[in-house]
Design brief:
- Pfam families: Acyltransf_C (PF16076), Acyltransferase (PF01553).
- Belongs to the 1-acyl-sn-glycerol-3-phosphate acyltransferase family.
- This protein has a domain of about 270 residues: Glycerol-3-phosphate (1)-acyltransferase (3-Layer(aba) Sandwich), CATH 3.40.1130.
- By secondary structure, it is of the alpha/beta class.
- The termini are far apart.
- The relative contact order is 0.16.
């Protein structure tokens, strides 16, 4: 292990960046609350623009973590149409839900196209209570569901329709699988598929279609396109987790993206349900190709593009480290070396509290136990069947 790797894996360094992220998040949340009180009563449009720009001051640090600290890459397999129009229109992204960090990888993808700050998502109600990040989700008018469709439908319709009048182009992320992949959940999905006479998937959970159907009802053809996006992490000796990114481990995030005009989506509920199942059947074959080849290259005509990193996250991280990170570290050093016993005990208590808060935040990104990871071992264990059927289904 080199000096740089040892430095990045130091718990003290990880704590340093984590504390900066937490304290800056508190500041951003307070500024968003001020915007809620002082701006929203007079201009909802200005409030929405303000909170989106404020949250980027927080989320940008996670992009810096991926891009610069870990050196991770984003590879996009897409045609010119997708690359030229992404970020310039409202869109729904349909993405598979495989890894602990797939949400962050999508954030990095969104940042490449300059639309991270206006990203929207349908998520579990309890996530809005996750410290800092969850609170920001609530301020940004994300849609929270309680897994009770009778009650959630109106919430979803109202939320989706509100995005049509949003002052910024929204990227609306839908994970139709509903939850991250584990072997236990996969087995339940197979049983459901057999019961309903559906085609079994080899690498994904069976998609849940209600959220998509409600979205189509709410948008009523007013959103231009759907982006069918399939995600995969290239083989690595490390598990693709937030903690390993914090340790400076590099990953290669791969996205295969297809733009589907909204006119190509069926108008009926039955047609939309069939549409989603067909999308996931194609995703499954595509992901099988990825598992076999460690790339989406060769599956169809879409070429690989390594999307360039933006400088905004670097500026954001430098700013927070300058005004918070280093001064906080210096003050902590003074307290621990020259402070009274009470001051020292208080400082240590704050450090311990922040440590457990960090564990809580990282823990929310970890898949439930039962799905094994780790390099080639991880790659082999996620297979649920042979993936040599890629030739059977090719996207245009």
């Amino acid at each position: 292990m080199g000096l740089t790797s040892s430095f990045k894996e130091s718990p003290l360094i990880q704590m340093f960046f984590s504390v900066t992220f937490i304290v800056s998040g508190i500041i951003v949340i307070l500024m968003q609350l001020l915007a809620l009180v002082l701006i929203r009563p007079f201009s909802k449009r200005l409030y929405q623009i303000t909170v989106c720009n404020l949250v980027y001051l927080h989320w940008g640090q996670l992009i810096w973590l991926c891009d610069r600290w870990s050196g991770s890459e984003v590879r996009v397999f897409a045609d010119d149409e997708f690359v030229n129009i992404c970020g310039k229109e409202h869109c729904i992204i349909l993405c598979n839900h495989r890894e602990d960090v797939d949400w962050l990888a999508v954030w990095v993808l969104a940042d490449r196209f300059g639309i991270l700050k206006q990203a929207k998502c349908l998520m579990k109600n309890e996530l809005q209570y996750v410290p800092l990040v969850g609170w920001s989700f609530a301020m940004l008018e994300m849609i929270f569901v309680k897994r009770d469709f009778a009650k959630d439908k109106k919430t979803m319709i109202d939320g989706f329709r509100s995005y049509l009048t949003y002052p910024l182009k929204c990227m609306i992320l839908l994970y139709c699988e509903g939850t991250r992949y584990t072997q236990e959940k996969y087995a339940k999905g197979l049983a459901f598929a057999k019961e309903k006479g559906l085609k079994e998937l080899k690498h994904h959970l069976m998609p849940r279609t209600k959220g998509f159907v409600v979205a189509m009802e709410a948008f009523d053809g007013q959103i231009p396109a759907i982006y069918d996006t399939t995600f995969g992490v290239s083989q690595s000796d490390s598990e693709p987790t937030l903690l390993n990114l914090l340790r400076g481990k590099k990953f290669i995030f791969n996205f295969h993206a297809v733009r589907i005009p909204i006119a190509d989506v069926p108008k009926t509920e039955d047609g939309q349900v069939k549409f989603i199942h067909e999308i996931y059947e194609k995703k499954d074959v595509l992901y099988g190709h990825f598992l076999e080849n460690d790339t989406f290259t060769g599956f169809d005509h879409r070429t690989m593009r390594v999307m360039p990193r933006r400088w905004a996250p670097v500026i954001i991280e430098t700013f927070w480290l300058s005004v918070l990170g280093l001064p906080t570290l210096y003050q902590l050093f003074l307290v621990l070396t020259t402070g009274s016993a009470v001051a020292t005990a208080t400082a240590l208590g704050i450090i311990v509290a922040l440590y457990f808060l960090i564990k809580k935040m990282i823990g929310e990104t970890v898949t439930a136990k039962g799905s094994e990871y780790g390099g080639n071992k991880h790659r082999n264990n996620v297979r649920n069947g042979n993936s040599n059927t890629a030739a059977d289904v090719k996207n245009d």
